[in-house]
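Chapter summary example.
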Amino acid sequence: MVHVMTQAHEMIIKRVIGNNAVLALDENDRQFVALGRGVGFGSRQGDPIDTKKVEQVFLASEDAASSRLVEVLTETPLECVRAAARIADNANERLGLRVSQSLILPLADHLHFAMQRAVEGTTMEFPLQWEVRQLYPAEYAVGQEGVRIADEVMKVHLDPAEAVALAMHLVNAQFATPGVGAAMQMTETIARIFDVIEKTFEIRLDRYSMNAARFVTHLRYVFARVSTDKQISDPHPTLFDAISHAHPEAMACALKVRYLIEMAFKTSLTADETAYLGLHVARLVMDVREAVPD
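The structure predicted for these 294 residues follows.
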């Protein structure tokens, strides 16, 4: 979590990390890293923090031990953290994401390397650009704004394609697994699911359509329930049987989709989750076919 400190007598410097960063202790002896222009300049161990210079504070927690926190923030320029904090604030306003250090730190770390690439004039290939733009338009739009924010704050010109990576960080922040690996896996899985549906029903899906967006939203909720071990489960198998009877082709396709999800996330989907998949597949296919002129 990001905090702003206001009571200097309660915060004592434990170690000066650099001119713009210090490791300190609060009144409860909790360690945190305080960032700000000149916050460590001329300071020594045992000195109180000049809170007027503090811009961001990062507390050490179970998923961010103080040693790792110090390492990351020592290597990351203050401008990158500033830009990441502004991007996180924008994501909070636009996407409803909670502003936390688990969001800001990965963004800052990515921006640091993006800045290095910009200075060196090197480019990076971003896989799944097409899928990200189609599957997560809201996150991609915030990623594009993030590139503009970074350009302004960091005084560099980032590759516009960096918006893809920023979007993936924002997508992943909505799920339990740290890092962008889970978001990449989810994106690849969704792309494969669309391929399976197209081949099964011999249709062409417009990934930009509202129908596709609705289906992706359902899949993302499925992934969220899987990641938090909160799948839909009814002890009475009536739903599965009812949807199988009403939409046998869609349910057969849903079983293929279930296999993709289970292989990707190393888990098993409940019968009810599979039944709802079948229902959403049936609705998607029906909407697509109704939209095709005779």
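To summarize the output: The chain has a mean pLDDT of 84.
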